[in-house]
Amino acid sequence: xxxxxxxxxxxxxxxxxxxxxxxxxxxxxxxxxxxxxxxxxxxxxxxxxxxxxxxxxxxxxxxxxxxxxxxxxxxxxxxxxxxxxxxxxxxxxxxxxxxxxxxxxxxxxxxxxxxxxxxxxxxxxxxxxxxxxxxxxxxxxxxxxxxxxxxxxxxxxxxxxxxxxxxxxxxxxxxxxxxxxxxxxxxxxxxxxxxxxxxxxxxxxxxxxxxxxxxxxxxxxxxxxxxxxxxxxxxxxxxxxxxxxxxxxxxxxxxxxxxxxxxxxxxxxxxxxxxxxxxxxxxxxxxxxxxxxxxxxxxxxxxxxxxxxxxxxxxxxxxxxxxxxxxxxxxxxxxxxxxxxxxxxxxxxxxxxxxxxxxxxxxxxxxxxxxxxxxxxxxxxxxxxxxxxxxxxxxxxxxxxxxxxxxxxxxxxxxxxxxxxxxxxxxxxxxxxxxxxxxxxxxxxxxxxxxxxxxxxx
Amino acid sequence: xxxxxxxxxxxxxxxxxxxxxxxxxxxxxxxxxxxxxxxxxxxxxxxxxxxxxxxxxxxxxxxxxxxxxxxxxxxxxxxxxxxxxxxxxxxxxxxxxxxxxxxxxxxxxxxxxxxxxxxxxxxxxxxxxxxxxxxxxxxxxxxxxxxxxxxxxxxxxxxxxxxxxxxxxxxxxxxxxxxxxxxxxxxxxxxxxxxxxxxxxxxxxxxxxxxxxxxxxxxxxxxxxxxxxxxxxxxxxxxxxxxxxxxxxxxxxxxxxxxxxxxxxxxxxxxxxxxxxxxxxxxxxxxxxxxxxxxxxxxxxxxxxxxxxxxxxxxxxxxxxxxxxxxxxxxxxxxxxxxxxxxxxxxxxxxxxxxxxxxxxxxxxxxxxxxxxxxxxxxxxxxxxxxxxxxxxxxxxxxxxxxxx
Lengths: 458, 405
Prior knowledge:
The complex is a heterodimer of chains A (458) and B (405). By secondary structure, chain A is an all-alpha fold. Chain A has helices at residues 3-31, 40-77, 84-99, 111-146, 154-194, 197-202, 226-257, 260-275, 278-299, 310-334, 338-346, 351-362, 364-380, 383-388, 406-414, 423-457; strands at residues 206-207, 222-223. Chain A has two domains: 3-152, no CATH class; 222-457, MetI-like fold. Chain A has a two-stranded antiparallel ribbon. In chain A, 40% of the residues are buried. Chain B is mainly alpha-helical and 405 residues long. Chain B has two domains: 46-167, no CATH class; 184-401, MetI-like fold. Chain B contains 15 helices and three strands. In chain B, helix 11 (287-295) packs antiparallel against helix 12 (300-328). In chain B, 46% of the residues are buried.
């Protein structure tokens, strides 16, 4: 019996219990319809739920237990190996050998014994699991069929289950946030055991590369994250300088000047910019914007213009966030009551005067909110800066130099060969923690500003 | 008070700035698309070299060694290539894929005599030269040396060099040789991941939206969930990658680089988008319909599943498609969970190690070979076309199915 067959059996029994209970309930309906509490398909649904739920719970529990038991037993076969990585390597070797994914017998005296153990015990476990689960499913199946009576309130129960499921689904969103906070916090706290929090927040030297051999020069690695933060800030500011004016003026033009027809074409086109994957922007930065700025740099004789400069990454990042600013600003400009605008126009002000002196002040909250949201996007953006900004952590405000950002460092630290539990790996989580809280605060502020503004006119 | 002429001038100037901004945004988009399409278009064709193949009667074609037979026939075409280095230069005009193609051809050939010109895959260096991506300087072009160029000229003179449709690009997985590299493996990885993301996030998102919109009163608990979801929507995608790394890989010990983990991570990322879209779709269903249903004796749950949900479905699906389209283009979280590896096999299931389309783009743009530039653009074209189709579907759904009340 394979696992697929077991699952098919459970599903088949579930479907069968649905139809049997439904049929039995229909028969009850014929005898005296007024006595029957629930409609036949509710009886069917309740029986199906009763049949499948124990089987699923058991299947998950069993698989989880099975995995941890097999893992510890397999590891005991290789207990003479010191390196935990090597043990993992052997264990996964055994697993893929038994699964038929590889046919290499690894070079260890216990390897074939481990293979034999794993092969027989997985087979045993599968057989046992199948028997137990099928028996329990059959019992549930039989019991659920017995429940189908005229008085049985199947509908209330099914609806109760549905509502509960919805409630748990909505609580799941909280678990995601909790998961983010806890997983980041856990690693961050461990990181601060080896590196002082003051050094991380105020140190000005960032070079997390640890040497492999002890006692090498610079083997400790240094984790002063100030250059990383300033780099992030510099690139995001450049992005805002590009996107701010373009986005703001686009929004003004589209909401105040453009005809409805022009607006209905231009707005979706600008929003296409938001739908383009960021990796595409990164590629664009590398093959077009980079060479363009380099040529400009040579033309104007700017010294020290590196090919991975803050300017290149920042301006491409700016293109990406234009639509965020444009559409959010457009929304808040359009939300200003017509009476304000018409009043100003009636007094003889031109449209530009009305816009700058009436509409923009009236929607200022919304505009600030949209800028903050765009800024938080810029801070958290990864691929453009990974491809265009580089990994060198320089403490500089010169946009022609290469700088690095929080996201670039996280990618650099967590891709490729990573040592477990080294401060280098854990520092990525500390950086992500800072990033998460920064964007969270920016987001909360901007959302509350926008909300406040909305209430003002409603 | 400034005079009216000045004021009108500044009015015109202001309007011009607005127009300039809109124009600039559209211009930047066009430049981006133009650059991608113009560099990527040539990657859909590929350079092939013709070789005169002569195999006598009596040879068992299926058992011939493709490599040495092809080389022998090449030497027959160029008898002047005598020295070791000359021969090596001649062979290196071909891709390793040429031998595989020849082997397949031999296996599929019926008949016992081969005599004629057949075309085989050229190396990426020659491909770049023939397409004009690298320009010729004297007798060399890019990585083609003068000692190879004499053979290239010979092929050109005999008219045995041509462009054919690049069947590797859409038909195979990644390869170290640009001319043999394809995105099929990455497409499979993306599809598996997206399927899993949809299966996890769609039911969860819709159920959450129904609960928040219909089944709970506004209280501290529902406010908490609501702000929580709004904030999750703005969490940088890389943070979701770290969550996936910590939860799915380190805690649940799911296989690294598998599209299953990628899909689950993308699903968590898409969830807030789906909840927000579903809520506004559910909100727009007129209460009169629901009240009529309740008035006829339906329970709340029956009303939701028989009326509210079907009527809100177009809006929910539109939001879901837009969320999924965003997830398809997402790269950063996939880097965190190790879906960034050189994988030459096409994944057979969501548990196999794989990459995804955007990750493949990231990997290729990092490759030093010149030929990967146009292939990166070509992969981007495929990705953009896919996203375009998804968005068109979303717009169509919104236009056709959504009722205005």
